[in-house]
Amino acid sequence: MEKPNIVFVMADQLTAKALPFYGHAVVKAPTLSRLAEEGVVFENAYCNSPLCGPSRTSMMTGLLPSKTGGYDNAHDFSSALPTFAHYMRLGGYLTCLSGKMHFTGPDQLHGYEERLTTDIYPSDFGWTPNWDEPEGKVTFQDMTNVLETGPCLRSLQIDYDDDVATKACGWLYDRARAESKQPFMLTVSFTSPHDPYVARPEYWDLYTDDEIDLPAVPPIPANKMDAHSKRIHAHYSIGKADINDNVIRRARHGYYASIEYIDAKVAALMQVLEETGLSETTIVVFTSDHGDMMGERGLHYKKTFFEWSARVPLIFWAGDRLNPHRVIETVSLLDILPTFADLAGTWNDVIEADGTSLIPLLDGKTIEPRTVPGELLSEGIFEPTFMLLRGRVKLFYSEVDPPLLFDLVSDPDELADVSHNPAYAETLDAMLSEARALWDAKALRDCIIKDQNRRRLINRSHKIGSSPVWDYQPYKDASKQYVRAGKWTTEVEAKAHLDKPRSRD
C-alpha cells in the first residue's frame, strides 16, 4: 500500500467547545466544518497538559511531560527524545515544519528535515517558573489580553500566521512539481486563536456583539471555587480586573474572529492540495495544543483540566478514502505519535509511547478502553496537579487538594463534584489508586524544582558576556532561486511550471 502524505495542521489554544461541529451555536468555521463532515471527528479528544510547550512536547514524543522533563514553557526539549518526525523519517518520509512548535533549547528541529519559519516565542530558559518562591510568577500572565481586544489591521499573531501559511502553501506547490514521489509529512502550526483576541476587520465583522454568547457557567465567586481554580484565578490576576459581560463578549468576539481567520488559512491549504491533485494521496489532520476557558466559571486562558481548557478538536480527513463518522472513545494527543508511526509503517520501531494508534478507530473499529492522563507542572501552581479520564468520568488529583470527580455524561458543565457521592465511591477509589500508581507527586516535585533551578542559573549566566542564540534562523539559498548563472530562462521556467492535473474521470 502506498504511504499517504500527511498535512498536520495545528491551531493554538483552540477549544473543541467553540467549534460548530462540537455543538457551538455561534462560530461558523466553514472549512473546518466541511472537513469534519467529510472526515472522522473525535468527539472526546484531550491534551495531556493544558499549556503550549508541555502539550506539544508530549504530543511529539508520545510521552507524558513528567517522563520527558517537559514541565513548562521553558523546558529543555532533549535531542535524545525520538519524536513522530523521527519515526516518519524512518518510514521514508520527507518531514517539514512551518510554524510554531515551542521548542526550547539548542535543537530547533527535533526530527524535521526542514523548517520554513522561526518560532514566535523564545527558545531560551527565560520563562522558567520558580516553585521555590510561591509568590513569584511569570510576568506576562495577567488580564490585559482579555481587556484589550478588538479589530486591527496587523498584529504579531497575524504577521506570524500569514508567514506560516504562505511558506506552507509554497512548499506544497514545490512538492506538487517535484520529480521525487517521496511521501511527505508537513506540519503547519499556527499561533491563533491564542490571545490577544484581535483579528482583521473582515473576520471581526463576521459577528456582531449582540450575537456573541456568554459562558454557559457564570463566574463562580473566588471564595467558592475549588482549590485548583482559586490558584489559577489568582495566577492570572482575574480578581484585580474589571470583568463584566461586555468584556467577556468582546474577548469571545475576538476569539471567534480569530477562529475564522485560522479557518481561512486551512481553506488556503486545502485549495493547494485539491488544485494540485495532492489531496488524492494526502491525509489532513487538524487539532490544537489545548483550549481556552473563555470566561467559563470566571476563569480565563488555560492551565486547568476543565473541558474548555483541556478538550481539543481532532479531525482526520482523506477525501473518499475515509468513511465519515464520529468516534466517541476518549483519546488524547499522546495518540498522535503512534498513529503517525502506524501510517509510516514504523509502529514496531517505537521505543516507548503512552498512547496508542488511532488507525482502528479511523477504520470504524474499536480499541481497548483505557484511562487518559493529564499533567500540569508549570507556573500558576506549586505542586504537581493531575487529571485522569476513565471513559467519561474525570478526576482532578493532587497531593495538596481534595479530589474532584465529575461525570461528564450527566454533568457536562462540571458543576457537580461527585467525589462524596456513595454511588461513585468505588470509581473514585479505583481512579485514586491508579493515579498514585502512575505518579509519585513528591518525587516529581523535587525533580521539577531542581530542574527549574538549573535552568534559571543557566539563564542568568547567559546574560553575562556573549549569549548563545538558539532561535531558529530559516535559511533560503538565493543562489538556487529563480534564474541564476549558467541557466537559460526557458530551462528554469519549464521545471517551475505546474499545470492543473487532469480529472481522473
Structural class: alpha/beta
Supply the number of helical segments.
15
Order of helices and strands: EHEHHHEEHEHEEHHHEHEEEHHEEEEHHH
Radius of gyration: 23 Å
What do you see in this structure?
It is a single chain. With 505 residues, the protein is α/β, with parallel strands linked by helices. It has helices at residues 30-38, 52-61, 65-68, 84-90, 144-147, 156-176, 201-204, 227-235, 245-276, 307-310, 336-344, 359-362, 425-438, 441-462, 489-496; strands spanning 5-11, 40-46, 94-99, 114-115, 150-151, 184-189, 198-199, 282-288, 311-312, 314-317, 325-332, 371-376, 385-390, 393-397, 404-407. Helix 4 packs parallel to helix 11 and helix 6 (156-176) runs parallel beside helix 9 (245-276). The model has no long low-confidence stretch (mean pLDDT 95).
Give descriptors for this structure.
15% strand; single chain; 505 residues; four-stranded antiparallel sheet; globular; 32% helix; alpha/beta; Alkaline Phosphatase, subunit A
Brief characterization of the structure:
With 505 residues, this protein is of the alpha/beta class. The protein has helices at residues 30-38, 52-61, 65-68, 84-90, 144-147, 156-176, 201-204, 227-235, 245-276, 307-310, 336-344, 359-362, 425-438, 441-462, 489-496; strands at 5-11, 40-46, 94-99, 114-115, 150-151, 184-189, 198-199, 282-288, 311-312, 314-317, 325-332, 371-376, 385-390, 393-397, 404-407. Strands 1, 2, 3, 4, 6, 8, 9, 10 and 11 form a nine-stranded mixed beta sheet that branches.
